[in-house]
């Protein structure tokens, strides 16, 4: 009798575990980067906002882990992205940046077909392949800043979903020419994303 009861209990636990959702969610998004293009006067004189960075649409992959049905963390990844830099509307070169972002999220209605969420986190952006002013100019190597997020998952079935997402990311950098700082630029982009998700 004890063995039979134990078997029933273990079987019930196994079925319950199978019914629960996996804590892992992976999404693939297409994301449009729209920079704020704010900058200090070049050389400390003249008008502000003369330096700008090109907009771009990029691929993105993010991995989420759910600690509870409502609370998760999301790591956003992509590969180094190339952007053009402009001074007074004229191209002065290019650079690449890699901007991994980690956010903590709250999902308001995780069991519903439409599940909105908000997120708060940090962004780390590293700049590379600076080719500004024929190599005499560059951007500061690293930028750390806040990231704000809002979005929603539209569930198609138990595993698949459509995702829409918007982020505001703080990315700042010194603009260097021959090793001297000549301006500070606030890229601070808004990122509009749409993609698909899979819950394992």
Largest sheet: 8 strands, antiparallel, barrel
- Count the domains: 1
The level-1 CATH class: Mainly Beta
Number of helices: 1
The end-to-end span amounts to: 37 Å
Poorly predicted ranges (pLDDT <50, ≥5 residues)?
4-19
Outline type = elongated
Give the strand content: over 45%
User: Numbering strands along the chain, what is their spatial order in the largest sheet?
Assistant: 1-4-5-8-9-11-12-15
In helices, the fraction of residues equals: under 10%
What does this 3D model show about the protein?
The chain has 200 residues and is mainly beta. The protein has one domain (23-199): Porin. Helices cover 9% and strands 63% of the residues. The chain is built from one helix and 15 strands; from the N terminus they run αβββββββββββββββ. It has an eight-stranded antiparallel beta barrel with strand order 1-4-5-8-9-11-12-15. A four-stranded antiparallel sheet has the order 2-14-13-10, with no helix packed on it. A hairpin with a 4-residue loop joins strand 11 (142-155) and strand 12. The longest helix has 18 residues, at 2-19. It is elongated, with a radius of gyration of 22 Å. The two termini are 37 Å apart. Residues 4-19 have low confidence and may be disordered.
Outline of this structure?
It is found in: Cell outer membrane. With 200 residues, this protein is mainly beta. It contains one helix and 15 strands, in the order αβββββββββββββββ.
Topology (elements, then pairings):
Layout: H1 2-19, E1 24-34, E2 38-39, E3 51-53, E4 56-66, E5 71-77, E6 81-87, E7 90-98, E8 101-107, E9 114-132, E10 137-139, E11 142-155, E12 160-169, E13 172-177, E14 180-186, E15 190-199
Antiparallel strand pairs: 1-4, 1-15, 2-14, 3-6, 4-5, 5-8, 6-7, 7-9, 8-9, 9-11, 10-13, 11-12, 12-15, 13-14
């Amino acid at each position: 009798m004890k063995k039979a009861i134990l078997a029933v209990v273990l079987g019930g636990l196994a079925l319950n575990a199978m019914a629960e959702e996996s804590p892992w969610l992976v999404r693939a998004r297409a994301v449009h980067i729209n920079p704020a293009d704010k900058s200090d006067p070049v050389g400390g004189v003249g008008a502000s906002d003369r330096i700008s960075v090109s907009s771009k649409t990029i691929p993105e992959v993010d991995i989420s882990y759910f600690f509870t049905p409502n609370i998760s963390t999301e790591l956003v990844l992509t590969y180094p992205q190339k952007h053009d830099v402009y001074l007074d509307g004229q191209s002065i070169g290019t650079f690449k940046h890699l901007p991994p972002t980690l956010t903590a999220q709250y999902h308001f209605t995780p069991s519903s077909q439409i599940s909105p969420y908000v997120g708060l986190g940090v962004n780390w952006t590293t700049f590379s392949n600076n080719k500004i002013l024929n190599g005499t100019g560059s951007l500061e190597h690293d930028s750390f800043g806040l990231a704000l997020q809002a979005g929603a998952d539209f569930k198609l079935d138990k595993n698949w979903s459509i995702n829409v997402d918007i982020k505001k990311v703080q990315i700042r950098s010194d603009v260097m020419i021959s090793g001297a700082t000549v301006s500070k630029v606030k890229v601070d982009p808004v990122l509009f994303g749409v993609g698909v998700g899979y819950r394992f």
